[in-house]
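Page 47, continued from p. 46.
Same chain as before, 78 aa.
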Amino acid sequence: MNRNDLRRVDLNLLIVFETLMHERSVTRAAEKLFLGQPAISAALSRLRNLFDDPLFVRTGRSMEPTARSIEIFALLSP
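Result:
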């Protein structure tokens, strides 16, 4: 992804991404952001398409980040 690609990114998706990284649950992320679970699922789908990676995989009752997610999260951290 280059700078031109970033111009098309909805920055609200990054808020959803960061919340999912902390909560590891679509339902809990939805509650934290005062959104519905379907809205978070749709945002996750858009993020997966954007980064061409599953980003999170379900393991039992939580969503574990992929290596790509961890890399992206590190770049977002101050």
